Amino acid sequence: MDMFDSFVNAAKDACDKAGKMTEEVVAISKLKLKCSQTKAEIEKAYGRLGKIVFDCKKSGVENDELVAVCVAEIQALIDQLEADTDQLMQLKKLIRCKSCGYANPIGSLYCNRCGAKLDPMPEPADEEEAAPGEEVPAEEAPTEEPQAPEEPAETAAEEPKTEE
Ligand SMILES: [Zn+2]
């Protein structure tokens, strides 16, 4: 009876782990997609703002309200992108530096690029006994784009079969 129970539990555990792994992969792809979409939205919003400012300057009519609406819209998108990027980093076991955006390997206390103190991870995934220090190196973070450590175009193209 005990043997059987532990067998069942082990099987269940393995299933849970497999399920979690897949969920994680799906969540990562979805977030990546969402981030690249948000980045595209931000670019578009910058374009709109530029057009508004251009028209204002050209016609000599100030339209601060419209500019403010646009700025607020862009800020909201940036905030959303930051939140999603943080979530993505967490799933990928990376910690994003709040001051420079660099993706640091989990377990880092200070940013490897700018030296700022990093927020500790809220829940360091307890479902796997990952060896600390053997995580993926944070090589994906481009140096000149602190706010966007992901490459949007590539990732989106790599995942053609995303549901929805
Ligand atoms: Zn930093």
UniProtKB/TrEMBL annotation:
Origin: domain of life: Bacteria
Compositional bias per record (Acidic residues), positions renumbered to this chain: 124-157
Region of interest: Disordered: 120-164
Protein name as it appears in the record: Zinc ribbon domain-containing protein
